[in-house]
Amino acid sequence: MLSVSEARERILQGLRATAPEIVSLSCASGRVSASPVFARLDNPPADISAMDGYAVRAADLSGEGVQLRLIGESPAGHPFGGTVGAGECVRIYTGSIVPAGADAIVLQENASRHDDIMTTTQVAQAGLYVRRRGQDFAHGREIIPSGRRLDARAIGLAAAANHPWLSVYRRPRVAIVATGDELVLPGEPMGPGMIANSNTLMLEALIRAAGAEPVMMPVARDRMEDLIALSRMVEGMDMLVTIGGASVGRYDLVQEALKRIGVEMDFWKIAMRPGKPLMHGRLGAMPVIGLPGNPVAAFVCGTLFVAPALRRLMGQDAVGPEIGMAILGADVEANDQRESYLRARLRHDAAGRLIALPFPQQDSAMLQVLCDSQALVIRDAKAAPARKGDACRIIRLDIP
User: Fold this and answer.
1) Which of 43, 54, 117, 370 has the fewest CB atoms inside 10 Å of its own CB, making it the most exposed?
2) DSSP assigned state of 247
3) With bands split at pLDDT 50, 70 and 90, how would you rate the model's confidence at 66?
4) Cβ pair 307, 232 in contact under 8 A
5) What are phi and psi of 259, to 5 degrees?
6) How many CA atoms lie within 13 A of 122 on its CB side?
7) Backbone angles phi, psi at 43, to 5 degrees
């Protein structure tokens, strides 16, 4: 059986980003930049005030009760058009352009005013409370690299740099096909032996959260002709994810059906728990990932393999999953030859340390335990017993 790291590397191998497209800035959140973004202006565009107060010449401030003549004001959006000379000042506000001749700001709480005379004891050096032109970024500077997933901070930065449109990678389209005669949609009448199809909706949410576009296909029943029909249903997709039917039971027909429609199989079994019957292959250039039917195993494999592959298709270099550290909150037993992913709660102790407390029950069909977990605790294959207080590696589930 392949290790988790080797299986993920084989899935990622050869994946190429989708084609770029241009989208409006308001639609770019969660997308991945397809080219570097360069500033179209200086920010700030001029020297501006960082505080409310008075624009002055630092050379005029001796700190001994200086009096300056007020010659105007410079509210935001309406710059003062004159020049501040010796013994003069201009009323100014946060974000306002510092008028010509001035090089410092006297805070309004450090000044008093009577008619057109401002008095202050504040001592200032040139540049005090002044944000210099281009201090944040200068015109032509690369502000966002290619391959960056665009979050609220990046959107704000692009907007400040005067970009109404951005080049991003197209969202990969992912066909999701659940298999099995026993599956019904949530809310449908449920006869004997039937179960609600939780996996498809769960994977749809996982794929959407990764930034891709899920496409839910009809459930493929346990008939070869239904499964072979996949070849017509998935044309134009960037990835095919099947759920269930990947092991070796009598009705587990997915492998054989995929081979018949032209899928070149790479592997179908890995040394992990939950998720041993993971399948991978290619239909032409399209990656095909077959997930186990047990819902927790499907989710864990989706987190470890599907989401990283989608990030690679979206043009990201760092595809995860991101590994963090915590302290075990309970003893755990020795591990066998399979790498294990234990569902766990997270909390902080009195010293502020992050504590991971694995659930006593780790059955791969228990969705309640998965939903109540904030992390997966990673246990290496053949790991010795670990004790409460030992360090452990985790994958956070509570951070998008």
Assistant:
1) 117
2) S
3) very high
4) no
5) -65, -40
6) 24
7) -135, 115
Q: Which residues contact 17 (CB under 8 A, 6 or more apart)?
A: 32, 34, 169, 312, 313, 314, 315
pLDDT at site 248:
55
Sheet of 213-216: strand order equals 213-216, 173-178, 239-243, 286-291, 279-283, 264-267
User: For the residues of 159-212, what is the DSSP string, one character each?
Assistant: HHTT-SEEEEEPPPEEEEEEB-TTEE-TTS---TT-EE-HHHHHHHHHHHHTT-
In this structure, are residues 92 and 53 in contact, taking their beta carbons and an 8 Å threshold? yes
Confidence at residue 249, expressed as pLDDT on a 0 to 100 scale: 57
What type of residue sits at position 48?
A: I
Omega before 360 within 30 of 0, i.e. cis: no
Q: Which residues of 165-199 are buried (b: 16+ CB within 10 A; e: fewer)?
A: ebbbbbbbbbbbbbbbebbeeeeeeeeeeeeebbb
- The first and second tokens of residue 344, run together, are 């766990």
Give the span between the Cα atoms of 379 and 392, in whole angstroms: 8
Burial class (CB in 10 A: 0-12, 13-18, 19+), 145: exposed
Query: How far apart are alpha carbons 140 and 43 in whole angstroms?
Result: 11
How far is Cα 71 from Cα 60, in angstroms, rounded to an integer? Answer: 15
- Nearest CA to 170 out of 287, 15, 16, 18 is that of 18
Lowest mean pLDDT among 96-110, 210-224, 323-337, 372-386: 210-224
CA distance linking residue 227 with residue 389, whole number of Å? 49
Of 160, 148, 212, give the one whose Cα is nearest residue 41.
Answer: 160
Name the token pair of 92: 């100014």
Q: Which of 361, 252, 213, 222 is nearest to 296 (CA)?
A: 361
Q: Is 5 helix (H, G, I), strand (E, B) or coil?
A: helix
Token pair for 174: 């992912």
Which contacts of 156-160 are long-range, i.e. CB under 8 A and separated by 24 or more positions?
158/25, 158/28, 158/37, 159/25, 160/43, 160/136
Residue 314 or residue 187, greater confidence:
314
